[in-house]
Hints:
- With 153 residues, the protein is of the alpha+beta class.
- It has helices at residues 33-38, 81-87, 96-107, 112-120, 126-134, 136-145; strands at 2-9, 16-23, 25-28, 51-55, 58-62, 67-70, 76-79, 88-89, 93-94, 148-149.
- The strands form four sheets. Strands 2-1-8 form a three-stranded antiparallel beta sheet. A three-stranded antiparallel beta sheet has the order 3-6-7.
- Strand 6 and strand 7 (76-79) form a beta hairpin.
Amino acid sequence: xxxxxxxxxxxxxxxxxxxxxxxxxxxxxDGSTAMVKKYQLIRPIPREPxxxxxxxxxxxxxxxxxxxxxxxxxxxxxxxxxxxxxxYAELPVIPREIDCxxxxxxxxxxDLGLVLSATYSGIWKASIGxxxxxxxxxxxxAWLDGYTVEEDK
Length: 153
């Protein structure tokens, strides 16, 4: 998942604004026993009809459909579904051969513009070039924000 965060600098907060891209690991809570065990959740009881999770800030209540995010040190926090949908976008899914191209191009210190230019010049093999031309926005997002690789069929 990729999120956008507005960071303001300087005394006048409206003067400088920068958007930061960052990735998080998050899973939508489905109420399953497996997820209750995985995150050591407290199940609802009649007096407290919500699931509860222990976070660094304390015990937090949430519902099925909300998201559990995991930090780099294994800590968890909750994100309401409505907030999650407004803040985060799923990483694009790309074919394995496009993944190989991105890895090799970045290793070769290419930039996105050079790769797109090479695509429109017909330098890549047809299947790669055709995919990039057909999915240019997805390719650019994958290059800039990260991606997941399509499962082999």
